[in-house]
């Protein structure tokens, strides 16, 4: 059974940094394209960032470009999202997900971790 477990969320102040982790089990992690998504109350889920199987290709939403960094460790089966210069508008539940292909769909999802940025 596949599990994706996010951790590292919390309450921070604007301008602070936070690193999210997503640990995968039950799948060959290196065979999956993985990404971070977020959903704020009353808003649609949006793609934050994604990374290819070996980490050679990355994608960032314009709203986080230059502030967030995605990375992965295929030995540890873990995906990371380093978030800096956090803004109140970054407040959301952050989810990690895994897909067999770069174009999706994403087959497996974590339960989410809350990130709250106070002004």
Give your account of this protein's structure:
The protein is mainly beta and 119 residues long. It has no helices and eleven strands. The strands form two sheets. Strands 2, 4, 5, 6, 9, 10 and 11 form a seven-stranded mixed β-sheet that branches.
Concise account of the structure shown:
Helices cover 0% and strands 51% of the residues. The protein is mostly beta strands.
Features:
7-stranded mixed beta sheet, 0% helix, 4-stranded antiparallel beta sheet, mainly beta, 119 residues, globular, single chain
- SSE string, helices as H and strands as E: EEEEEEEEEEE
**Overall residue-averaged pLDDT value:** 96
Report Rg: 13 Å
Q: What's the helix count?
A: 0
Low-confidence stretches at least 5 residues in length (pLDDT < 50)? none
The portion of residues forming beta strands comes to over 45%
Instruction: Name the helicity range.
Output: under 10%
Q: Sketch the major β-sheet.
A: 7 strands, mixed
Structural class: mainly beta
Termini, distance in Å?
40 Å
Oligomer: single chain
- What is the overall silhouette? globular
Q: Could you tell me the number of beta strands?
A: 11
List the helices and strands and how they pair.
Elements: E1 3-7, E2 10-13, E3 18-25, E4 33-39, E5 46-51, E6 58-60, E7 68-73, E8 78-83, E9 92-99, E10 108-109, E11 113-118
Parallel strand pairs: 2-11
Antiparallel strand pairs: 1-3, 3-8, 4-5, 4-9, 5-6, 7-8, 9-10, 9-11
């Amino acid at each position: 059974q596949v599990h994706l477990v996010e951790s590292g969320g919390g309450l921070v102040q604007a301008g602070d940094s936070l690193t999210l982790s997503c640990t995968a089990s039950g799948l060959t992690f290196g065979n999956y394209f993985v990404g971070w998504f977020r959903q704020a109350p009353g808003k649609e889920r949006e793609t934050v960032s994604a990374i290819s199987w070996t980490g050679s290709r990355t994608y960032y939403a314009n709203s986080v470009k230059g502030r967030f960094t995605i990375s992965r460790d295929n030995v540890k089966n873990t995906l990371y999202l380093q978030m800096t210069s956090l803004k109140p508008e970054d407040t959301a539940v952050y989810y990690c997900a895994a897909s067999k292909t770069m174009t999706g769909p994403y087959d497996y999802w974590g339960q989410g971790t809350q990130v709250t940025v106070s002004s």
